[in-house]
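Hi F.,

I've been meaning to write this up properly since the lab meeting, where we talked about keeping a consistent format for the predictions we share between groups. The idea is simple: the sequence comes first, exactly as it goes in, then the structure tokens exactly as they come out, then a line or two of notes. No screenshots and no reformatting. I'm using this chain as the first example so we have something concrete to point to.
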Amino acid sequence: MRSENAAARLETELRRVYIAVECSRARDGSETPSVIYWPDGRFWKIDRVLFVSKTGGGSYEGIRYTVIIGGAEKYIYRNDRGWYVIPVTNGGHMNAENAVKHRSG
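Output, unedited:
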């Protein structure tokens, strides 16, 4: 079981795409993301932040932000190395428009 979890975390780590994020910072030090910038220069405005949750050792590392971008619920993440997304694939190819993972469930 442990090796399966370690393998899943490694696979997730390899799929991460680090991005630039424009944020506002509150007095308490918390950050609220407002725009994400894909490495090729494209960007998406974050309409709203729904939830902020810290990892419990699951499938992601750091803090997960559940956000609304273009009317769709997405995830972006922040860890000690920066902001990242876990791209979804479409037929084995990266799909930048869906690079910010849709919430499953």
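Notes:
Residues 91-97, 101-105 have pLDDT under 50 and may be disordered.
Residues 2-98 form one domain.

If this format works for you, I'll send the rest the same way.

G.
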